[in-house]
Design brief:
The chain is built from three helices and four strands. The protein has helices at 42-56, 76-88, 108-120, and strands at residues 14-21, 26-33, 62-67, 94-99. Helix 2 links the parallel strand 3 and strand 4. Helix 1 runs parallel beside helix 2 (76-88).
Length: 121
């Protein structure tokens, strides 16, 4: 008895990254296929943040960024350096970062992810 083709049919896995402009209430999702995921470093997150500001930014000169404190991904230092680069090159006048405390990470993007998961299913 040989296994049929359904045995090898497994759903694709993807990683989802989202950024929300709280003033507009619009969240942008980035879906990355598992075969194209570069890893859990800060470079991927920085590239997605840069794409968001380049294509969906409102031309703001002051940015206030709230993000979850995922220390396992070691993205904090990379994001800090990227924000300093944005200020030094004049893309932003100032950038303030707020990291959520462990256990208190519920904010607007989480609500958007909840709605997205319901619609996805």
């Amino acid at each position: 008895m040989q296994v049929g083709p359904i045995y090898f049919a497994t759903p694709r896995k993807c990683h989802v990254f989202g950024m929300c402009a709280e003033g507009t209430g619009i969240q942008r999702f980035y879906m990355i296929d598992e075969s194209e995921m570069p890893g859990k470093g800060g470079d991927c997150v920085t590239s997605l943040v840069h794409h968001y500001f380049s294509h969906f930014g409102a031309g703001e000169k002051q940015a206030e960024i709230h993000f979850d404190n995922a220390v396992g991904q070691n993205k904090n230092n990379t994001i800090l350096g990227y924000c300093m680069w944005r200020v030094l090159t004049g893309l932003h006048g100032s950038v303030s970062l707020s990291m959520m405390l462990p256990g208190h990470t519920k904010f607007t993007p989480d609500w958007h992810f909840g709605v997205w998961k319901i619609k996805w299913r």
